[in-house]
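Quarterly update, task 2.4: flavin-adenine dinucleotide-bound model.
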Amino acid sequence: MKLEFKINNTSKALELLPNETLLNVLRNNDFTEVKCGCNEGECGSCTVLLDGKPVNSCQVLAMSVQEKEITTVKGIGTLYTPHLLQKTFVEAGADQCGFCSPGMVLASYSLLKENPKPTREEILVALDGNLCRCTGYVKIVDAVENTAKKLHSNNLVME
Amino acid sequence: MFKYVNQPVEKIDGLALVTGEEKYTDDFSFNNMLYVSVLHSGYAYAKILDIDDSEARKMHGVVEILSYKNVNQILYTTAGQGYPEPSPYDTLLFGNTMRFVGDNVCAVAAETKEIADEAIKKIKVTYKELKPILNLEKSEGSPIIIHKDDGAFPKIPVFYDAKKNIASKVEANVGDFDKAFKKSSKKIEFDFYCSYGAHCAIEPHASVSYLDLRGRLVIISTTQVPFHVRRIVSHVAEIPVSKIRVIKPRLGGGFGGKQEILLEPIVALMTWRTKRPAKLVYSRREVFKSTRCRHEYKTKLEVGYEADGTINALHLDALENAGGYGSHALTVLANAGSKTLPLLNKIENLRFTGMGVYTNLPVGGAYRGYGATEAYPGYAQAIDMVCEDCGLDVVEYYKKWCIKSGETSAIFQALGEGKEGVAMNIGSTSLVECLDEGAKLSDWYAKRKLYGPDSDYNKGKRLKRGIGMVAMMQGSAIPEIDMASAYIKMNDDGSFNLNVGATDLGTGSDTVLAQIASEVLDTPVESFIVYSSDTDFTPFDTGAYASSTTYLSGQAVRKCAEEIKKQILKVGAEMLSLSLDEVELDDSRVVAKGKKKEEVSYAEICQYSMYQKNQFQIQATASHISPKSPPPFAVHFIEIEVDTFTGIIKVLNYTATVDCGTPINPVTSEGQVEGAIVNGLSYALFENYYFSPHGKMLNDTFGKFGVYTAFDVPPIKVKLIKSYEETGPYGAKSISEININGALPAIANAFYNATGKRLHNGPFAPESILKVLSEK
Amino acid sequence: MLILFRFSGICLLRTIHLCLPDAGGVVLRDKNFRKIVESINMLHQNLEWFFPHTPEEAVKLIAAQGVILHGGGTRILKTSPKSIKGLVDVGKLNLNYIHHSDKQISIGAASTYDDVIRYSTKTKKLSLLAQALSEAASTPLRNRITIGGSLKDFPIWSSLYAPLLALNAQIEIADKHDKVISLEEYLESGMIKTKHLIKRIIIDDDPHLVGGVKRFALIRFEYPLFTVAVALRAKKKIISEARIYITGVKGRHKHCKRAEHFLIEKELTNDVIHEAVKHFNPKFAADYKYSAEYKEHTSKVFFTDLLQDLKGKL
Ligand SMILES: Cc1cc2nc3c(=O)[nH]c(=O)nc-3n(C[C@H](O)[C@H](O)[C@H](O)COP(=O)(O)OP(=O)(O)OC[C@H]3O[C@@H](n4cnc5c(N)ncnc54)[C@H](O)[C@@H]3O)c2cc1C
Ligand code: FES
Ligand code: FES
């Protein structure tokens, strides 16, 4: 069956089965920027935002979120119009294999949007559902801190 | 001094990664594609008497089933190594003997993944259960033989005795250990046990295959070794090399786990037989159970020394659990000796003995650190013990005894990978500076004095603190075996295609290689269109392992770029009507030496060479092998706090100083250090495989296995201390593996500093720590 | 067989595919595949979804066999959904709220762990509960896991039960009739095993209660081995009421009555704490990582630590 979903600010009819997870539905409908590292809620590579809050899309039955705003990493910035946060990730070297990056970026985005001046501790909590085996997290946390600094010093608000 | 090298250039694929644009293997799907599921053995050791797949074949949507009944029984090794592989040929893609829980029984290809999974459940397999060996110390010479009459054989002339369950054996002697040990006035003997480990690359293993429009097989795969995949798939699936193309798209981490040919032959056969695209993606549980892991190890140390700290004799013995198959069994073992023993090269009598044995447990493979991780905990604790006993500072001890520039160790020649090693002198090293700087950054001297088991600081306290350290070496590429090559051609606008066989696992090697070419050709990194890891379009490279890419592939790129430089200069000189020695490169131009007024741009040069006169394509290719494997060095200092009530060890501070020669890209280099450190820490503190009494892994999810999140990472200080390696590109050596080795030994030494007790079993999980603390 | 390749999207492989005999493309999923699934219809039971607007409707719907409630769905996805014929979503039942009234705080069953944490940060209430929940699972999961689903499900790693029991929470259930019972009774009576709708949790807002909670986990994102919670009330430093619960033990939870009794009418001194621990004897089962003895031992250490923490707060 086909159902309407609100994804990245547009309405989109997606093919799905009633017992499918949001992750499967998204990937099957070419939103391959949402990754699957475990399918058990334990890695965060499938993170999307639901009404602005990060969730593990592999732990969400798609049928239950029809009325919510879904945001994938492309919803906050693309290769052609990258978000400040994404640029800062690259600048800081927070991207190694990049498999965790869509999830990391979304988790950080959601944090900064709500709390543009997070403490280090708040950043660590916000990222506690996103595993990265490559970076050791040091540069990822740096990237979030640097973005916050840039926002602050340029008087920008997170969009 | 450098313009593009040693600069923090952003990763060329960075923006595409963080915007989700890049594609990984599972992101490729094709029309009419089949989905593959594999049935894995639930028994540790069993004979399959029969497979009845009739019910499954009747299901709608089931297209093909592969098992021992219809797949040729061709022995191979899943290890993605150079040819002939040093690992024994002891594996069948689908055989009728199951040698570990997770071994391949059969595979189904169906119209959907759901149907394939359902079909798997309908396949009736009749097993005859055999008594397994589930303990590495009970394997050698056991009446239970794991590879019996299956024809398993070593591909190269090395010791191999399947009848005794011996998958590999290595021995090396320098001087006369026995005599020197006997004569020593002081002696230490102890063991250290290293647990299984899992790579936990966040992207699971996946392969997709299809036939191109001329009927050739294309395999897109999560691999570190595309060229080995092509060769081994050709062998196993009996498809000519000329008909196979292997592509590695973006890869979601490897760490050695994807240096193994596991899924590719399955999809290849499915596609070859059905003429349809086929995709196989392992679930996380399958990755844990069925792919490869870090070998389990038991090392033994015997050290004979004198009261002044002089070590007369040192013997490292390693018993390795290969698991059901001998993938990397020989080479990991050899590296356990060759990456540790040369470090203190002034020890005159050295002995290394090692044996890899088969068991019915998961199969070991390549894993970042590759033997060194397993050997350093024993080695470095031994050095710490000698120093403690003789009242010497261990940092000063390393400074005095460690290998220096211009020096060698007989071990280099004695221990190779499946053959004799290669003698070499150390060229570059900043190990002594690393020791000094690390001691300073970690406040070593003050803290080592403050802590200590009987110190006022710790005495009678529940929470005890300690600081420990380790100095280490690794290698850069396998000398005289690994080969890398590169191809560059020039385009009209002065840009270049850089095609390399090298495999970027996320390490950033595509970027680093472009930086090297940039430096030679004095043109920005953005001028390079880097394309890597495609067996049709990129020249050969052994692949991403043995810490080889920057050092080896980098040098191939440099040579290739030098060739291009010559051609550019020649055309430029011709255009400027100057002789070759009157021109030079300057910022994407050829200019007259000295007065830079006369100039032609790269774009003009390429257009001239393509369209105007004496036309030819400016292009070159180059290959490189290395005569040596220059070791990178690292020193790690770890400060811990032990909760003596619960046994929980908390790491307070981690300091690492590293000599990787010239860091071609300081940011990605640091990233390699940090990533390896965190992986090493969790391996040291809790990562382990827990088995049922029947050999089934029980903690086969991230949640149960336990993986650090950002929250768990202690403060880490990393400092790269340069040296210049003449044989590497712009002075570079490797960096990717070495830093995973430090956590186990440095924590063990810190634990002694805190409690006065030695640790002999990894990981240092709380219950076992509590046991150690309660021992008298 | 003819294979259709079409080019879709931008991708890394663009370069190579342009120079190739197979000249085309990547990435196109077979749009037929769903049809095959649906036509065979043997793999997917027809799962029906319901989005009722009132608790009454919801209760009626779940009376049917194979029809259950859907909160966050995180547990439903872990257990086999094969026998499930229908899912009744709690999202539109107006159960997503946290109210404060009559010295009581009501948490609607559709509230997530994150909702509770935010409420607590804002109002400084429910800090014991919020502390426990803020360590549960992970940020993205806490945004999904509901109070109702977690009460009904009660996994061994629950972060919710120990603090709620220590807080003497009550639970409102809609079955044939609505009723409010203590959470303890909910467990003891076996009610938890019946099918019903949980509407809310009710907790006394008592500023004089001091409490603490501790879970055993080596790393942040790990299923906790056990969670122990203590709530105390004191008059002039003399304990007048104590509630001590631990989850993750044999039988899932334990009300540590002996330790409670011991503490009544005592002041929390080091000696008292030392003695109290002797009355705290939860029984554990061994698992593949830890022995029962180790768990028992550490739970006592944690209990002592909790009491030490509370000493200064009474
Ligand atoms: C990786 C991971 C880690 C986790 N770690 C923790 C942890 O550390 N601590 C912790 O506390 N939890 C943890 N959880 C959550 C826990 O395991 C359960 O998944 C969760 O509590 C279920 O909540 P839910 O809202 O998703 O329930 P659902 O999956 O929606 O439902 C669970 C059950 O409750 C029923 N149900 C749902 N809502 C109601 C209602 N209002 N009334 C009656 N019945 C209802 C459903 O029918 C179903 O039977 C973790 C989960 C995951 C996936
Ligand atoms: S794929 Fe969803 S959390 Fe791992
Ligand atoms: S960059 Fe590879 S998992 Fe994070």
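Highlight for this quarter: The pocket of FE2/S2 (inorganic) cluster (ligand 3) is lined by residues A 95-100, 132-135; B 202, 253, 506 (CB under 6 Å).
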